[in-house]
Amino acid sequence: MTPEPFYPIGTPGQAWGESEKLAWLSRQVRHRSHADDVVARVDRLRSRFHVSEYGRLVYGEESFPQLAVRSRDWNEALPTVLVTGGVHGYETSGVHGALQFLEQHAARYAGRVNLLVVPCVSPWAYERIHRWNPKAVDPNRSFRENSPSDESAALLQMIAPLKDKVLVHIDLHETTDSDESEFRPALAARDGKPFEAEGIPDGFYLVGDTEDPQPAFQQAIIAAVEQVTHIAPPDAKNEIIGSPVVAHGVINYPLRALGLCPSITNARYRTTTEVYPDSPKATAQQCNDAQVAAVRAAIDFALANA
């Protein structure tokens, strides 16, 4: 019999207390620089866009600016497009895909939409290549009133005045091998639950909204991304990560009930991308390109069907 995997912190069947969370935090190591990888690239965009610091995260002696990049020619008569990346800091192509879109493709939408791009919602987690913030809280289950995540609360506050003006919100994510080796086992240990392996889908897929799935919108994105990288097939149960596949490369979640990032506006068109950077069939650049293709397809579809 294969023994049940168990995370090295905590006691099986018991949720973590503060001592376990501190033990987890002590294991986190800084691997890369938000200042070098994100802030420096955003600074180079200042001549073309309006850049603002919508918040500042302070964790111990570390301080991180929370940056938003907006169209300089903002026009209240135009629809608004919101792009978010790095809600889970370890999901690298979400951050770099958002920046690549700004650098290479945003200009074609000038005068057609208002762009609001938040390339890295969770800078501390970006540096640690982790899913959680330092409090062992997942920002992408925390987009709700009285959020336990400072990252989520700041984004909610910034977006609040635009909540009813956003036409498209696309949230850029990844699914990685470390989901199964680190993050899901850590989640199970934190919550005192058994770990149940779900498998890692090999390829790109989308997570739509159960309450408002917009299937044509989702399929337009899949068709565009399919020109860049492969789409994840369903497993033997016709599921992807435990959810039924509702169309080619698409599953749905109840976004608001789960406190997920695409629930923060009343946008007609909402989706979450998921690429698979550990696939032998994809490179890191392909993953970035897939995120860009998804953003462009989302905007193009919305403009054609608004």
Task: Give me the secondary-structure category.
Answer: alpha/beta
Give the strand content: 15-25%
Indicate the low-confidence ranges by residue numbers.
Answer: none
Radius of gyration based on Cα positions: 19 Å
Helix content: 25-40%
Q: Strand order, main sheet: write it out.
A: 1-2-4-3-5-10-6-9
Write up this protein.
With 306 residues, the protein is of the alpha/beta class. It has one domain: Zn peptidases (Aminopeptidase), CATH 3.40.630.10. The protein is 33% helix and 20% strand. It has 9 helices and 10 strands. The protein has an 8-stranded mixed sheet, sandwiched between helices. Strands 7-8 form a two-stranded antiparallel ribbon. Strand 3 (80-85), helix 3 (92-104) and strand 4 form a beta-alpha-beta unit. Helix 3 (92-104) packs across helix 9 and helix 7 packs antiparallel against helix 9 (284-305). It is globular. The relative contact order is 0.16.
Question: What is the element layout, followed by pairings?
Answer:
Layout: H1 18-26, H2 34-43, E1 49-59, E2 62-71, E3 80-85, H3 92-104, E4 114-118, H4 123-128, H5 150-159, E5 166-174, H6 177-191, E6 205-209, H7 215-225, E7 239-240, E8 243-244, E9 250-253, H8 255-258, E10 269-275, H9 284-305
Parallel strand pairs: 3-4, 3-5, 5-10, 6-9
Antiparallel strand pairs: 1-2, 2-4, 6-10, 7-8
